[in-house]
Fold this protein.
Amino acid sequence: MANRRMISKSISTSRRLSRVSRIAALLFTWLIPHCDDGGNMDGEADLVKGIVFPLGLETPDEIDNLLTELREIGLISFYFSKGKDNEKRRYLHVNKWESHQTLRTDRMDYRYPTYGKPKVNRTATAGMLKRR
């Protein structure tokens, strides 16, 4: 999974993102670096708070409302899958992820269950192997 993500400057002129509250827009941009290479991450509000806003004053209920705001405008989707403990968990997917992230095929890392059929904007790097 990438340690850094690129965020296009066009995000500041996104009409869709401009229709959510400022804090929801901030949450959306801060979700991006925490997603795996498929644009997925934990979707439970308490986990999102701990991962994305650990020092913020927002409660998990407030984070859940912000996530709902993002889902209702179509920026993210929720999906459910069994976690490592075989319990059903909520995950989130950043919609149109593959349109905004170019990933190297030799470094793909899916940390979370995939959302639908993964579509990835991939670039090959000849001769380079993923090293751990």
Notes: The first strand starts at residue 40 and ends at 42.
